[in-house]
Amino acid sequence: MFGISPLGWVHTIGSLPAIPVAVYMFARYGRIVPGSVAGAVYFVSMLVGATTVFLVAHAPVSYVIGGLTLVLLFVGYGVGRFSVLGRAAEYLETISLSLTAFLLMLPTVTEILRRVPDGHPLVTDLASPLLLGSQASLLVMLIVGLTAQIIHLRRQGRMAAG
Questions:
Q1: Taking the complete model, does pTM exceed 0.90, yes or no?
Q2: What is the separation, in whole angstroms, between the first and last Cα of the chain?
């Protein structure tokens, strides 16, 4: 179904929980929170998705996205352990993990448009206006979201200092 191999289904189903969990954390906290239960689910799902992409991907860009996702995931979940960074750690954590959500959604949207409906996908060409528009929309959401997160973090820092 949808031209997905059994290993591809492991990749897809393994990474799928990261989407609603990320949406929940963005809505509830305004960012991905590593120390929460939802944050743990996000980490495991992203780890499954980012590692299995190396086994199922065909396009070279997929390896770049997978590798970058892993780096950002580990930075986002590890940077808080370095007290030397002070408040910068919270900014790095927020930016890194928001970028992982973007890197999850970019191929997700692309693959959905290229596979659904089964046998007659909405997009057959990587230069399709629908695909490019969808990807551009994700980029705009990333820019707006990161801007809002940074403004919020700055306000929190000012309130804590004052």
A1: yes
A2: 58
